[in-house]
Amino acid sequence: MPGGFPTPSSKTTESASCRHSRRMCRICQEEASCCSRGRRTLCLTTPVTFPTLLDEEYAVRQESFFYYLFGVKEVGCYACIDIDKEEITLFIPTPVLAHKIFMVVYDKGDFEKMYGTRTEYVKDMEMVVEKMGTKKIYVNYGKNSDSGLTTLVPEEKWMEKYPVDKDAVHPILCECRVIKSPQEIEIMRVAAKAGVECHLEAMKHCRPGVLESYVLSKLESYGKENYNTDIQPYLGIVASGMGAATLHYRLNDKLIEENELILCDCGQLIQGYASDITTTFPSNGKFTPEQKAIYNIVLKMNRTVEAKLKPGVSWRDMHLLSERILLSGLKDLGILKGDVKEMAEKRVGYLFMPHGLGHLIGIDVHEVGGYLKSTPERDAQPGLRNLRTARHMLERMAITVEPGCYFIDFLLNDGAKLLGIPTSYIDFDKIQPYMKLGGVRIEDDVVITETGIDLLSAGLPRTVEQIEAFMAGKDWKAIPEGSWISEVA
Asked: How many CB atoms lie within 10 A of CB 391?
């Protein structure tokens, strides 16, 4: 592996999944909502996501809760956990022998060797569950607080003879996924390291005259060649110039021009766990004065938040702090005028950072657990309603820190009017030289520790001077980062 850092073995993932299942069982045993006596069984299913009307194979990714509990990559399976005995049974589709002509086909013995789990066929599931002495079935039913979509649950006809609980397990599983185990953190560290190396590769190949897709291809192919990343955790973004003002820019088809900023938002997927990293750098290796000024504001937002993160800190407070640093920096440039505190209260910061400060991360890029019944509710105000969580930080929680600053014409004009955000604080003459800049975002992956953070995505040139040195082929690591902690309260 590049840099001598080995990928965690498959045994690490398997044993971690077994621990996840046991942890969930023990919490269920203690929870009042799951305290009825008698055999209790959790049943889960994983979807088959092949396109209809086609007989070809496509890359698919396992349903996240299923992967978390069992570490199984193959889709179309079911699984049951005897909550009281803490025993797992995996159910797989009956193999069709003729399929061996076209693909690798696994039977029960293969699955038991791969995953160390008792395995039966789906057709025998009713009989096995009955032999377990099941008195009540729990399914993992719940709504994702980001997408609004609900989990897929088994709806077998034979399940109707048992009481089925749809409410108890989902919040328990979500909370389990929020707090990472040491094994999960090890895997995420490798995913972040892979992401860092891929971003460095993208910066090496970026230059005026190539397509955005060319830079993206270099990044993704590096991951495939060096880390065997066959699936990306999300669609990568390489946005040049004004494209960087579109938060989820997906075109990646523009020709990169001189003196443009490149916003590269791409991650890697290692053993089912994602990294999510964003870098912003100049197309020709040299920042213009306007680009440098905005970049330094965002870097200050990023580093100040990271310096303050620790258990007990409110993520909502960190978002508001980053907005105040942004407003103060834009005021220093003459783009804004007026009192920073007043502008923050009027939600002017949203006009320049129309997304949340970051999100939980893990098996899903936008990890579950952001909003549960036991956590702070979503704020309805512009900007704050975009936060994917408003939780207080907990030790071993993994989260991204991704402040940004964007110059979006619609938002600064019609959008502000629709939202009722005053634009009288903006000097529209002073802002003009910055409008073609597009946007800047700096994103890191961190894990909350007992006293601060573990920066998983370390190893990137982050200051203007470091980036320019790296793109010039010089030793950027010899340039100290210095302090970027803002004094804005």
From this structure: 22
* Helix, strand or coil, per DSSP, at residue 307: helix
Confidence of residue 130 (pLDDT cuts 50, 70, 90): very high
Q: For residue 171, report the phi and psi dihedrals to the nearest 5 degrees.
A: -65, -30
Return the biggest CA–CA distance within the chain.
76
Determine the Cα–Cα distance for residues 315 and 399; give it in Å rounded to an integer: 10
Q: Which two tokens stand for residue 202?
A: 């993208």
Please give the Cα distance from 396 to 181 (Å, whole number): 7
pLDDT tens digits, 50-106 = 544 556 667 788 999 999 999 999 989 999 999 989 999 999 999 998 888 888 999
Give the Cβ contact number of residue 143 at 10 Å. Answer: 12
SS3 105: coil
398-401 vs 404-406, strand pairing mode: unpaired
* Phi/psi of residue 110, nearest 5 degrees: -65, -45
pLDDT at 8: 45
pLDDT of residue 474 exceeding 50, the answer is yes
- Per-chain mean pLDDT for the chain: 92
Q: Are strands 134-139 and 39-45 parallel, antiparallel or unpaired?
A: parallel
Whether the predicted pLDDT of 34 surpasses 80: no
Does residue 121 surpass a pLDDT of 90?
A: yes
